[in-house]
Structures are given as C-alpha cells and as structure tokens.
Write a structure and sequence with these properties.
The complex is a heterodimer of chains A (538) and B (520). Chain A contains 16 helices and 22 strands. With 538 residues, chain A is of the alpha/beta class. An eight-stranded mixed sheet of chain B has the order 8-7-6-16-17-18-15-19, with helices on both faces.
C-alpha cells in the first residue's frame, strides 16, 4: 500500500502550489488528479489539431509574485507576456479604447466625455488605494474574530492598525467601497455609458451579481489586484496558454521530490478515529497519509467524497448553504485567419487587447436579469481575446486562437438541465454578437468548443461551473470563507485541510489559497515555514 | 440675545421631536414649516369627501419608545386604533398564510414553522443589538473622542457577547441578501415573499440584492412595542402622531410657524446666522437644525459654495430616489378579499406571492420603468378606526412597488394613469370585486411625494438605506454626527443616522448631540 506524508486531491494550480510548498519543506507528497492532464482550470489543451486552447482560465495576472519567486517558476519555464488595454464596441459603430499609455487613454476617453476623462484620475487613484489595501491580506490567513487565541487577536489588531493607517475619510470610503455596487461606484465618477460599461466588467466577471448588485465593487478588486512584472493591475498571457502556469508549478513540485498521479480519481476521504487517514481511489486502491488536503471546492469535499457521519450536522448544513453559483460560459475558437473589426483603425493595437461588445450598464444589468430568469444572456457580456497575436505558439502560422469568456450563463435553465441543443444555441448567441462587429468572423471559424457550466463541472469539477469555487460575496469573504469558523484552511476533521479557491482569498489563478493552506499545515506539523507571508509591500 | 435661539426647519415628526427635546434642553426653539399643517410625511389627509388616510407612511412599527415616554406622547393624545397586527400573505389564488405574533398559520410545512421560530429568534437578537447603536450618534472610526472609542469598543464587545455561533451568523448574514437567507429557513413561497417584501419596502432593492438583510433588521430594530417590529395603526392616521408631537413640543415651549417656507439658510463669517424665508423675512438664530433631507438642506437651502467641493460631491452622490408609490382608495363598502375573514381585514395584507415575483417586480425599476406586476402592502385602516371614513364606508391605503422616481418616460398624466391601472389590476387579483366599490382614489408617485412633502427624490428614508449609506457613513462622510461642515448647522431628519421610518430617533439624537455639545 502506498503511503505518504501528505495527499493533495486535485492537480489544479492551488493543489500543485500547496504540494510544492509541502514538498519544499521535505514532506513526501503526492497529488492525485482524476483527469489524464493536470492544471484543473489553468490548463492548455489541444482540442483541435495543432491548436492549443487555454480552454478555461485564459489570462494571467493574479498569480502572486511572492509565490512566483518562492517556487522559482521562471526557471521552471513560466513566461508571462504582458498585454494592455481593452476595447468596447458600441452599437452606433464607434468604439472606446483603453490604453496603457495614460496620455493616449485620456485622449481617447475625452473623445467620449471630457468630464469622464478628467474623472478617471480620481477613479484610478481611489481604486488603486482599495487594491493596495486588499493586497495586504492575500498571503495571510484570516483571523477568527470569535476566537480569543493570541494569534487571532494579534492578527485582528494588525488589521486594525492597517485600517487606521488610512486617514479618516479613506476609512469611510473603504467601508463604502466594500458594500456598494460597481454601478453606483462608477456613477459617482462617470457620466458616459460606454466608459462605465468598459470599467464594470471587472465587477461582475465570475460572479452571479449584476453591476447594480451591492457588493460588486469588491469583485472589481479581484481583477485589479494582480500584477505582471511589478505592474499592479497588469494582465498577461502565459506562454503556451494557462497550462504554462500549472506545468511550471508541477515542475517545481517534482524538483522538490513531489509526485503527481494522473487518472487517479479520489472517491472517498478515509477517516479513522476522527483523523484523516488517506483516500480511496475510484480504482479501489487506497493511498494513506496522515495529512489530506482537498483542492476540491467545499461542497465537493464534504458532500461528495466524505462520509456524512464523519462530520457534524450543523457544519454540513453550512456547507450546503455555501453559495457556488454558475454564472459564466466560455467559447474557444480556432480561426483560419485574423478577423477584422471595421470600427477599429487599421493596425490598431487594440486587436491585442480584451474586446467587449456591450456598451452600457443597462445592457449588462439586463444580461444579469436573464441569468436570474434561468436563461443565458441574449445580449451577453463577452470578454474576448486573441492570444495568438501575442503568443503565436498556440496556433499554426497565420492562424489564430480566440478565447471568449461569456457572462451570464446559468447552471440550470428554466427548461431544466442543459442539453446539447441549448449549448449550441448559447454558442450561436455569442458568435452572432461578435459577428455584428466583425462581418468576416463567422467564415473564419474552423472549430468551436462551447463550454457551459455543465461542461465546466463535468470536466474539471468546478461546481456549477463557478470559476471562483464560491461566490465572492461578503458572507463568503475573509474570515467567512468558506464557512465561518473554518477560514483557516483546517477542516473539522483532524489532518484534513482545504486549499481550493473556496478558501481565502478566493478564486482567480492566484495560488494564494494553496500557499496559505501549506503554511498552516507546516505550522501544525511544527515544520519550518517555506511559504511567503507578508503584508504586501509596494 | 439670539445665541440660545434655534430654528428647526420642517415640522415633520423628526423636526418636532428634535424641537421638543431642544426646548426641554433650555433652548428657545422656533419650528418653521412650509405647509399649513405639521407632520410632514407623518400626516393624515382627506383625499375625498369624508375619507381620510395617512398620506405617506401608514403603519407604525419603529416608533422610538423613549421618545414616546420622555415626551409624554400618550398624555399628549397618542392613541392606537389597532396594535400588534398580523401580516396576511396573499396569493393570486385563495391561499393565505398569516404571519403573526404567535407564529405561522395556514398551509405551511413543519420546516416553515420551526424555521420561523429560529429566524425570528435570530433576527430579533441581531435587531436588538443593532437598536442600541441606532439609538445613539454613530461613533467616528478614527480621530474620534474618548466616547467614540468607548462606543466602538462596546460595539465589538456586544457582538462578541452574542456567543460564537450567533456572532458568526451575524457576520455572515449581515451583508447578504434576504433571498438566500429565507431559503435557508423556509419552504413556503408565500411566507418568503411576504417577509422579503419587508426587507425591500421603500428601497431600491429586490430580494436578491445583497444588503437586503440589513434593511430587514433595521425594520425590526426600532424597539416597537410589545415586540420588535410589532405593527400598529395610530388613531386618526399618522397625523395622530404628529398632533401628539406638536402638543408635546408646544408644551415644552416650542414656537411653531406653519405656512412659512425657508428660502435659504443664511451664513455669516462661516457660521449660520439664521434663515431667510421665501417672503424675504429674516429670522436670526445661533443654530439651525434641518429636518429636510441632506440634499435639499445642503444644495438648495445652504448653497454648495459654503462647503468644500469634496463634501458637495458626496451629497450630490447620495442615492435618494424613491421607488414606492402610494395608492389611496375610497370604498363605498367593506372590501372582500376572498380567503380573508372580515375581522381579519384589520390586519396588514401583503401581495408578494413569492420572492422571484418580487424580484421581477424590481427589475424594471433598474431601467427607469415601473413594475407591470407590482408588489403591494395593503392597509384598511377604517376597519379598526371608523372615524377615517363615512359610516359603512372604508378607505384602502397601499404602498405599491416599484415605481421609480426617475421614470424614463416621465411621470406625466398618461404614465400615472397607466400605473394606476396596473395597481388596480394587481389589487383585483386578490380582491376581485374591488373596482366596483371605488368611489374616489388617488395615486402618489415618488415625484408627487417629492412635490407634496418636499423630499428630494420622494424617498421616505431621505436617502437609500443601504450598507454604504448606513451608520458610520450616513448620510455621507463628513456629516455623520449630525453637524454639517458649516458651524451651527445640523441635520435631524431621516437622512441622518439611523434613517427613515416613523421613529423620531434622528430628531432625538440630533437634539442630544446639540444639547450635550453645548453648541450655541
């Protein structure tokens, strides 16, 4: 029988990160993955011959630089190429571009609204302040506010001090920011529809909230707090697709002596005498270890691969009430050539950027209403990119790969479960929307992979296809994530830990949950810490 | 000589409350009211010959009991025609569920019954905690006085004292939506629909909007008697409360000048010097306390030039656009709501058959359209107070949501008529014969409420009640402790902490702040 110091369930980027830090500390670790490929949602796959798709997550920014350095990911082959800007196409034939160059960005915005171009300075400063504030807590374990332990009180006081370092007005602004909607927040700065629409996307991507749902301003931070090469808020492409991130972490793990086993689906976490003892695989094989770390979301961990009798009923009730809501879908498209967008000037750099096709908050909010009514958005918010313009390795010469993230897409339709016909109709909705702005687009399509929450759940185990493994609402953030009282990565069974995006600080290819969980495990084992922990310094 | 003189702008229930406390605190107080009667949005109006209703707010459930006792409102004539009312949830069919002091009755499951007990225990506990902090000035989070720091420390301690489980539950549900929470406790669509309406009544939120648990707790936190959130109807309509407050204020020595509109607040040497009336008359005073909403107070009466740009921007951004319309009907006989026995018609009736219905009713409001299938809170006050209608006849008073203040099409007569038709059609689904009984009626949109009651946006909270405009940040940073940035000028209306509803609390705390601060 195979025996290890620690078993990590799921070779997504958090599971791999967790295992890498444990292996670095000298533990004998194995990562068990049900698929025949690793990466979970940070994956590159050849689903159409000669094309590499980042078929789930598609851009890289949030990956913590501390982790990048601690695991020496550059040496393990991870290369992130920054890209800049975005474009929002308008129904009237015009567009709004956004650029890294401040002067150009200002001029473009002023073309739509002089007032808003000026207001953008204030907006950027205010948003950056909130971003800096939240970044401080990413690589730290949240304190339990109900506890009287020294460590929790110390951490609460540290947070308190962090808050009081701001001036009084800034504290109130922070309080408001955390509780308001991205729509209301933008309304305070801007007057122009398309400018608001172009900025609102980050407040809703991945969540089942509309731009006017309170709390969505916070979601914005989840897309702003990343950095590439020290540029806060920057986004980049991992060379070779998002699998490049997972492969580099896996390589680091293996360099530290860790093991990865593919096609090893865990069926049951074995608990003996109230302690985790190992796992049983679908093949019937048992793997034993005193430490089991689950990179599955909390619902899957406690409801699918555990025995109810090993858990307290109140805890299970809270697990059932944990909100994981599917709200998005994805289209991956192989293109015979580069589509043209007549609204853009010839040779525009905006072709390299995120493209959007919805030009007002009202349209985005209505897209959300469709989700509430259990249909996919008829006029969706699409975040579209052509990564091959930046990284030509993903398609044959002259050909292109296009990634379309689509919101909103419900986990279940009013007609019931998703069918293949529904899936295709959903894909057509997205393709039709893009075609309105690119007449030659349809003719260039060689292959389309359409992913609804159904496919995301079946393939890589994202419950309801939720990319954050749990909604980013106040009831599920910080010390509430995933479940009040269990925010410190420990499950209620001794030796069992959680390291998925269901835990603090949440989803995105950040790797912070995996790293934080490793730090807690090493502390319990009284081993030297291998995981960076800091209030982020700028 | 004018130093101890205070002018209170507006004789709404908060203005009167504040004036009464200030006079008892030794000030020489004049209340200036634009309309010819007192009460503001707490009034009773005769909308048809012999038919009277509460013109705006129609139920009392949050009235501050300290205000009642300290000002002796009962000695000054405050009476209720009905107390401790139940809520009856109506469905388009004849299914009815009663949510009353004793629990649920009607077609509900065992889980509904036990869920209701636990939900009530939990929300009343949280509301009880909240009410302590709603009944005092919110502490400053930084740069505060010793008292502020003590209050913050006590708040932390009180939350801890809830015990581990309840504290976790408070921190979890505090900022989420009522939709998810009710699904955790109940099966019955009718019960969930009715309770969710309590969370969103008078706001720009649907049951699925995060923060809507807060508004529900706020509703319960107004230390009503005999229990939190207990519903009552004042005798003679809401004007009955205003009348008692007026008597209490006059007894304390307050002078009330109605039919006198303030044109502007005058400032000299960076300090208020009084007010100038619309007829040009000037009244001098050492302090001015405004029960008008913050936007009106700062932008219309004071003038933006007296404040810093940043502060003015915050006032400008204060969200205060109402969504609730008010429907008043004069009926030539007792109405018939199938499934509700005649004696039960004195209770509160709710039409929000399920939470998704309520959410769908909210959707159009986001786009400046009114609900074509609205939710309603219906009162038949003449059932318990026959003085409100001629003998044998009745009045119906309903809050109809959602009717956004900024209707894209504009609230012209055509739009109003169309929305009235929608409201009557909805009413007819639960009271099929009612149209034939109507002898007179009126519909007040938020635009009408703005014009009639001089509330910006026609919002009964004088500013949306939402976490980002609550407690430490209400109405806006820089004015959270009642004092505005111009010396000698204070807020005392619903726009200030803790917010709207017939409470008297903002008026009471504002007076305390002024008296304790020895401001003059």
């Amino acid at each position: 029988m195979n025996s290890y110091d620690a078993i990590v369930i799921g070779a997504g980027h958090n599971g791999l990160t967790n295992a890498a830090f444990l292996a670095k500390a000298g533990l004998k670790v194995v990562v068990l993955e049900k698929n025949d490929y690793i990466g979970g949602a940070a994956v590159s796959r050849e689903l159409h011959k000669d094309w590499i798709y980042s078929n789930c997550s598609y851009v890289c920014s949030l990956l913590r630089p501390e982790i990048f350095q601690a695991l020496d990911l550059a040496r393990h082959g991870l290369q992130v190429t920054p890209y800049g800007g975005s474009v929002t196409f308008m129904r009237n034939g015009d567009y709004l571009g956004s650029y890294w160059d401040h002067e150009v960005a200002h001029r473009e915005m002023a073309r739509h609204s002089r007032h808003d171009a000026d207001a953008y300075q204030r907006f950027a400063a205010e948003t950056m302040r909130q971003t800096r504030f939240i970044r401080d807590f990413l690589l730290r374990t949240p304190p339990d506010p109900t506890s009287f332990r020294y460590r929790d009180i110390k951490e609460l006081l540290a947070i308190g001090r962090r808050v009081l370092e701001m001036d009084e007005e800034a504290i109130y602004d922070t309080l408001r920011f955390w509780t308001m909607s991205i729509g209301d927040y933008l309304d305070e700065f801007f007057e122009c529809d398309v400018i608001k629409a172009s900025l609102a996307g980050s407040g809703i991507i991945g969540t089942a909230l509309g731009p006017y749902s309170p709390g969505s301003a916070y979601v914005l931070l989840h897309h702003y707090m990343g950095e590439v090469d020290g540029n806060i808020g920057a986004w980049g492409f991992a060379r070779g697709g998002m699998g490049g991130v997972s492969n580099a972490i896996a390589s680091a793990l293996q360099a530290f002596g860790g093991e990865i086993r593919k096609e090893a689906e865990v069926q049951q976490i074995i608990v003996r005498n109230g302690k985790a003892a190992g796992v049983a695989l679908a093949s019937g094989e048992e793997v034993s270890a005193p430490i089991v770390v689950s990179n599955l979301d909390v619902r899957r961990t406690f409801l699918n691969v555990m025995d109810e009798k090993d858990l307290d009923s109140r805890f299970l009730e809270r697990v059932r009430n944990f909100h994981i809501r599917g709200s998005s879908g994805k289209l991956n498209i192989a293109l015979d050539g580069l589509p043209t967008f007549p609204a853009l000037p010839k040779g525009s750099s905006l072709m390299h950027s995120d493209m959007h096709f919805i030009d007002s908050l009202e349209r985005i909010e209505r897209a959300y209403d469709d989700w509430k009514n259990k249909t996919w958005s008829r006029d969706p918010y699409v975040d579209m990119l052509i990564p091959t313009l930046t990284d030509p390795t993903m398609a044959p010469p002259g050909k292109h790969f296009m990634s379309c993230f689509v919101q909103y897409c419900p986990p279940e339709l009013d007609t019931g479960e998703w069918t293949d016909q529904d899936r295709d109709a959903f894909g057509k909705t997205v393709i039709d929307q893009i075609s309105e702005y690119s007449p030659d687009f349809k003719d260039l399509i060689l292959h389309v992979e359409i992913r609804t929450p159904r496919e995301l759940e079946q393939e890589i185990g994202l419950t309801e296809g939720n990319i954050f493994q749990g909604e980013l609402t106040m009831d599920q953030l910080m010390f509430n994530r995933p479940i009040p009282g269990f925010a410190q990565y420990r499950a209620p069974v001794k030796g069992l830990y959680m390291c998925s995006s269901s835990t603090h600080p949440g989803g995105g290819v950040m790797a912070a949950p995996g790293a934080n969980a490793a730090r807690e495990i090493l502390a319990d084992l009284k081993r030297p810490n291998t995981v960076p922990e800091n209030f982020g310094d700028d | 000589m004018q130093a101890r003189r205070i002018i209170v702008i507006g004789a709404g229930h908060n203005g009167l409350t504040c004036a009464a406390y200030l006079a008892r605190g030794g000030y020489d107080v004049v209340v200036v009211e634009a309309s010819d009667h007192v009460g503001g949005a707490a009034d009773t109006r005769e909308f048809a010959d012999g038919f009277r209703v509460s013109g705006c707010a129609h139920y009392v459930y949050q009235l501050n009991q300290q205000v009642v006792q300290e000002l002796g409102l009962q000695q000054h004539g405050l009476e209720y025609s009905a107390r401790d009312l139940s809520t009856i949830a109506l469905s388009p069919g004849e299914q009815r569920v009663t949510i009353g002091p004793g629990g649920l009755s009607g077609p509900v499951t065992e889980r509904d019954r036990s869920g209701h007990q636990e939900f009530t225990r939990l929300t009343e506990r949280f509301a009880g905690l909240l009410s302590r902090y709603l009944n005092q000035a919110p502490p400053r989070l930084a740069n505060g006085t010793r008292k502020d720091r003590l209050t913050l420390a006590r708040l932390g301690w009180d939350i801890r004292r809830l015990g581990r489980d309840d504290m976790r539950e408070l921190l979890r549900v505090g900022a989420i939506n009522i939709y998810d929470v009710l699904n955790e406790f109940f099966d019955s669509d009718l019960v969930k629909g009715a309770i969710s309406l309590d969370a969103v009544l008078g706001t720009h939120m649907g049951p699925r909007s995060p923060n809507s648990v807060l508004t529900y707790l706020y509703r319960l936190a107004g230390n009503g008697v005999p229990r939190p959130g207990a519903l009552a109807l004042p005798r003679g309509g809401m004007g009955g409360i205003a009348a008692a407050l007026e008597r209490a204020a006059r007894a304390a020595g307050v002078e009330i000048r109605s039919g006198t509109a303030v044109g502007r607040i005058t400032v000299s040497h960076d300090r208020v010097s009084g007010v100038e009336l619309t007829d040009g008359e000037r009244l001098e005073a050492g302090l001015v306390v405004s029960s008008a909403d913050p936007r009106t107070t700062v932008l219309s009466l004071l003038g933006a030039r007296h404040c810093e740009t940043g502060f003015v921007r915050r006032i400008h951004n204060l969200r205060c656009r109402g969504n609730a319309a008010k429907l008043h009907l004069a009926l030539d006989g007792p109405p018939d709501f199938p499934g509700v026995g005649a004696p039960d018609l004195r209770h509160r009736l709710i039409f929000a058959p399920d939470m998704d219905y309520a959410e769908r009713a909210f959707n159009p409001a986001k786009y400046g359209e009114y609900s074509t299938e609205p939710v309603m809170e219906i009162a038949l006050p003449s059932m318990s107070d026959p003085s409100l209608a001629p003998e044998g006849k009745h009045v119906l008073s309903a809050i109809v949501q959602y009717a956004p203040y900024q209707l894209k099409a504009g609230w012209d007569d055509g739009q109003k008529q169309a929305f009235l038709d929608v409201a009557l059609a909805t009413l007819a689904t639960v009271a099929p014969g009612i149209r034939d009984q109507i002898v007179a009626g009126e519909l007040l949109t938020p635009a009408d409420i703005e014009a009639r009651y001089r509330i910006s946006g026609g919002h009964w909270h004088h500013g949306e009640l939402s976490l980002d405009q609550f407690m430490f940040v209400r109405p806006v940073p820089g004015a959270t402790q009642y004092a505005l940035p111009v010396d000698g000028l204070f807020l005392c209306g619903a726009g200030a902490h803790p917010g709207g509803g017939i409470t008297g609390t903002p008026g009471r705390i504002a007076a305390q702040v002024i008296v304790e601060g020895g401001a003059a």
